[in-house]
């Protein structure tokens, strides 16, 4: 596999014209206000024992998301930790949900709390549009409801993700001044959206090989992965009227959220990523409004990015910014 | 590409054990009754001129489907034809909708009326679950709501398809005694479902390379196409608890509908079809309850089946059964 | 799949240097004169009934082509239409022939006559070089006889295509002042050739995603499809003496025919076309001599171009130019 | 890549029913008689110097083939060899010609004469049907003229190949009692045809991974290579009338030639060959009429067979049969 | 992707003939004795702080392996745990090493100690044959030294893996009566080898989708992954003398180790695994000598097996056998 | 397949910055001196008879290579030739060894002597690091020992290749003033290395589609072949510390050897080569220090380059430089 995009120098200078809709802020303010109006309690049930864990305490959480609907999450923290703990809110990649707590052991091992947020429809425990229990479907989210920003799937999911940050304040033992939002691929795009929509309420954002950025170019150059659902849509359904779809997507573009985000940011990118081509990541990074921003470049990585080498980079970066848990 | 399945001899004998759920008939009776309870009028608007057609009369139809929601369809017929005309109700392949009337010119040229039924969510004009106007999404339908027969996507779509047959009676100039249901791939699976659910109300069924048949084997052996969404679901979401998904699918399996269907049937199959492997088609065909059933075998065809060679076969077969329009 | 070529802006400016051979006009004048010298009658046999069609009248036509050899065609027109009708002469894509009349129902439904021209050797009914009846072969045409313009396969096929226009005058009920030549892929390349070779005898040309254009670049950048036969030839047979092959191809290049063509032209292109890369289409379009030329851009389309969305564009465009049939 | 066919045990027993047409022998007798009627001289020109060779003497040969047309060949022999020498007549793989003498140095180095026969149309120096000089085309031969045994391409090429054996008698210094016919892939199929058509005039035949055998199965199971041209033909052109094509091919099937061949035979096969699947090779081998037959099995080989390991096997095998040149 | 092998029923009965060499036990006894003769101390250095971990204590271990050479390992355990702890000795997949401790957090979180063993040559910290520091190479191990069991790469690596079990006794706080050996893919094959070579010294073995089993079939049917290196070797280097390679491999085959292993065993398999086809896993499982053996079947899984769903299965299975840590 | 790189014009100007390490010359002088210190005799055994050759005399040679270890080679020459003969020293492509003498018949047929040098580890007859007899392994050489120039695999292999030139002087009947070094792919990279390390001791160098050149770009843009082993190493093992690997490779880069080489040079390149992309070949060519350098461009060739058309080009080029054998 060859490099999938420009070289690093060109990427560093890549800053495509902004496409923020005029009513972008209004749209999101309205959307979030509406969601918050529904209120609803955050619930947590201790489930450590059933997963056989000893050093970690696990709660099965439900918090109110879009339309007040209950969104599932795992809360993990070091057993016996005296709070308040810094907390990493983690979002999940495309076509997957929160999975099992045993899949998320890094942050609690490092002394952090972690809230792992389910993705509606994509996971087992959070139906989209009250369609029944359980996992719902594989694929299709990328274009679901794309005719209008009002009905687009990611309006609902991104609202859930912001409400996850709201939920942190309701959970005991967490330090609401040290909320970090993070995730890889779709999770990275969602973290970026949350950073743009919550301003200084999050202390840091760490999007890894983020998806959901710079759709216009992503549709033109991505080689694999869920942007291809968009390409198929434009090929078979929109054909020569492609602007309406992009007009919807402008409300959900990481490049636009980046222009509203101010928290310290640690991005990562793989220069051989066929799914989220480097320029789409750099477009968000180079537009990022916060001054403290860092890009970890994995030069020969595909969409797996830095894999097991990435967590140490993130742990150091958070420590340098005073966000690590006390000893 | 090699043959994707058994040879023709083995296929002719292939008759897997039936997996009809005990409450299969009750489930569908309840579902259809519920849909019909909503009532609602069938509406048709003449749109011939805007498509520049001269020999064909085109109506843009809306009929009440699942939950009474309006389902789009095109009605095409030879201009100036004296009715009542035999009518071919056509269902569409996966991830597409009714498209434009200019894409459906065969049956009216041959003197039939044709009702081309949109697929909710998949096409531009029939939203699923009132999610807004326009086309909705690409992919994902195969597993949407699969946790239960109640919430499964195809419950709604198949109901629409049965209601299309109901709608024929409401449309002037059509002969309700000569309703043929037909389609290729997903359209073939839907036609088979309708044949199984409407009994002798349809005069013939013509499923070409039908999808939505014999899911258990399809998941094991298909090489490409939308059964792969099911495979991905079973791989990533269900893992070693795969029976619940198959239990849902039993309510929507062409092999089961075939056991309830009695109309004369003309199937087709491609022996190199990687999407709908031959045994899945033969499983439905060999279980078909009606005595008058024919299989057109295209020995070296892939999922395109007989392409342009298929219509003459269908035209002859219908004529032999007295279903052709009068001169 | 990513974009396969430049962006639209660069394509609009792409105008490679002309490579018309000095004796290009002389070569074709000589070739066509020779073919016409053979004379021969145009024959038509009414076959509507055997294809079960009601609104369309179909004739099975044989007209004299290269070397006076009989070339098969279908003539379709609205049943009972009072002529003279505008006529769309349609050429066929690579490795296929005229097929069945039921595959060509658009133009007659819209009130036009249509002449569907078989491709010698590629179809069932027109042998190349009197090799016997029936279909002859799959593939290989691209380089057959490439050593010299005299023996190159497309010399014979393009001559047939011009002679199809000649034949229109011999067929009753057609309006020789409203001849439109059209086709997709190879059919588009042939339509362009005919437009260049017949001057103002054709009233319009509509090449969709045309093949047979700008061979030098096509050989360098196409990813799939029959230009690969040329690449294989140059790789295995010509090796470092590639100029002679290109010198032959210059006599058959849509870019060169475009410089001789003056009829109003409606091209189409898919920006993700791996078979006929956009720049090869734009090279012909930007060199097109006629002033009334339009490009329909399907931004995310592959070689399928605009599919079912294209006919309405063509119907409108013809209507605007006064070429539509009278009501 | 996995094994492409049965295991060795099943292959050893694989003996499909014979499909020799009733008039097979009459067809070939007539065809060869007709060709020989044309007569014509064998011409040879010494060209050693221009290829810079020192130990080999090279002649550029033309001998009369089908229809008396001149077929090109290279004759190589050890410089200064006292004849008469045993001679290996070599046929070439699909879509290639005799190439250059420097590509054929094995047999002369081992003391044999070698006659390398060009394939009409496929090579640079032997046009098919007098279509002009030079190489002609890439691909398409597999189905060219397939409508009838009379017009099928391989009728002409196989006649050339038999006439090459006739030509040996006309060339000085060769031992007509020690003619070995050989080749790989298409060359192997041609060698087998010649063995079947010349009886005891050839002293041995060595078909490596032979093509042109057992078309019915080859079309069903081959994964790659020129049998795919046949599959495409059957898919797109013949559709459900596939028997006529197979009826033509029966006249050109290595399985049928094998039943007429008696010379000692050394076959080879690769058990992972995706182009010429093992059972198609074994079908010919197991039907081979001569008693002295050997199969070299290369268990993990693809269509490259034994590559550089094969010549020593052949040299030994010939030596054991007294066919090696004297010291 | 379709099922890559037999159905589950046939797999349950699949028990290929044993190919254990006569001197198998002698070979391994000699090899291990020789390695142990070198002696050497086990060293451990506390490195928890530099990886930023809080709930886990990490030691960087070096223990003496083949030829007494130092082999790297990570030892992880719950911070502050009172020993002695049950310990899971983990081996790594092909072309990777022990990586970072942050990649191995499951077992310590569940209260176990874990020893993660580097693979010589494949990882960063354990050179093979003292070739210098650092990672050494990617690929090639499968056939390195395959000419003889003495020189084969896996002789050295498997010896290291047995010596890792020896090392457990030297490390404080571990319970030598509760040693579990485990791993996925190559790691599973190594765990099986260790189980066969250490008898009742290990309390359980958990091979997931194990590699290094039943080479004769693996070479014939695997579709992807490192068995292809063996296929390439047999294709290009051994050709028709393939038995010597298999004779070497018999000393390193999981099917043979299984016949010597008695510890309770928990295997897993994916029925769509293209890398380690199901029958190769079942061959070892069905030959497994211990009576307490369980197969976890993931019916639609590829080589990723049960992924995140597998650990809970393993945790329960160990708990049921009294191997879980005390609360 | 499209062009894999720049057009010819840009390639002609492509001259990347030099990356020769400061101690490059010292490193190689030390390495070669060390190897020569070991001394050792060149041995040759006559084996002509066992390969059944008549016009060629073959010796099985062992000469001392790196660490004085015996390296296998074939020496072929025209039987009965009066020396001293010009000699072509040939190196072999990746993952293969010297094979059999019957695979190397060109140069002796043209009157030259040829020394075919085995590649340690890659062939059957030259173990790397005294690991036992026979072939050793497939793949992995590209990164073996890459941590340091001292331990890198190619340090040993390139030393063998230089020592092959030393060995020529020890073999009777060869003309040490007419030594040509040559090879394709890896063999071309090795020939270039030897040309750079032996200065005017070689009379000419002929690298065809050379591998082992310009690693930094090769890793970024190659699409297939052994540079992918480097990419995998950088992706999975080095991640964001990729400079150390490139620092090692600088000692083994054809671009750097080219700057030290002065013999007349005949390169070749395929503009569609996915394995050794054109710019990597031109980088060496454009940096080549000798003034007499020629590039044979095969415009549509993949990694097979000019195949059978290349030898005549090389024979002419050598003749023009007075390096051909006397008549």
From TrEMBL, chains A, B, C, D, E, F:
Q: Which Gene3D superfamilies does its entry note? A: alpha/beta hydrolase
- Domain Acetyl xylan esterase per the UniProt entry, residue ranges: 1-317
Q: Which residues form a coiled coil?
A: none
PANTHER family reported for this sequence: CEPHALOSPORIN-C DEACETYLASE (PTHR40111:SF1)
Task: Name it.
Answer: Acetylxylan esterase
């Amino acid at each position: 596999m060859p490099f999938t995009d420009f070289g690093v120098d060109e990427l560093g200078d890549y800053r495509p014209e902004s496409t923020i809709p005029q009513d972008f802020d209004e749209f999101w303010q309205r959307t979030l206000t509406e969601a918050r109006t529904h209120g609803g309690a955050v619930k947590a049930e201790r489930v450590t024992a059933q997963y056989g864990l000893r050093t970690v305490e696990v709660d099965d959480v439900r918090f109110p998301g879009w339309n007040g609907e209950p969104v599932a999450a795992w809360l993990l923290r070091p057993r016996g930790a005296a709070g308040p703990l810094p907390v990493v809110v983690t979002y999940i990649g495309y076509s997957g949900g929160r999975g099992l707590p045993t899949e998320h052991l890094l942050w609690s091992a490092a002394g952090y709390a972690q809230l792992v947020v389910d993705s509606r429809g994509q996971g087992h425990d959070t139906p989209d549009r009250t369609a029944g229990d359980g996992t719902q479907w594989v694929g299709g989210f990328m274009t679901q409801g794309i005719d209008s920003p009002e009905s687009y799937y990611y309006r609902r999911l991104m609202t859930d993700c912001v409400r996850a940050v709201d939920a942190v304040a309701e959970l005991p033992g967490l330090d609401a001044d040290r909320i970090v939002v993070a995730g890889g691929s779709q999770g990275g795009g969602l973290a970026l959206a949350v950073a743009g929509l919550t301003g200084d309420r999050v202390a840091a954002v760490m999007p890894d090989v983020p998806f959901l950025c710079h759709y216009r170019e992503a549709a033109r150059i991505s080689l694999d992965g869920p942007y291809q659902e968009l390409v198929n849509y434009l090929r078979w359904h929109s054909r020569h009227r492609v602007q309406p779809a992009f007009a919807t997507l402008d409300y959900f573009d990481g490049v636009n959220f980046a222009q509203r985000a101010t928290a310290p940011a640690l991005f990562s990118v793989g220069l051989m990523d066929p799914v989220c081509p480097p320029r789409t990541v750099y477009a968000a990074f180079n537009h990022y409004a916060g001054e403290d921003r860092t890009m970890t470049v994995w030069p020969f990585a595909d969409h797996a990015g830095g894999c097991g080498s990435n967590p140490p980079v993130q742990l150091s970066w958070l420590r340098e910014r005073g966000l690590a848990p006390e000893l």
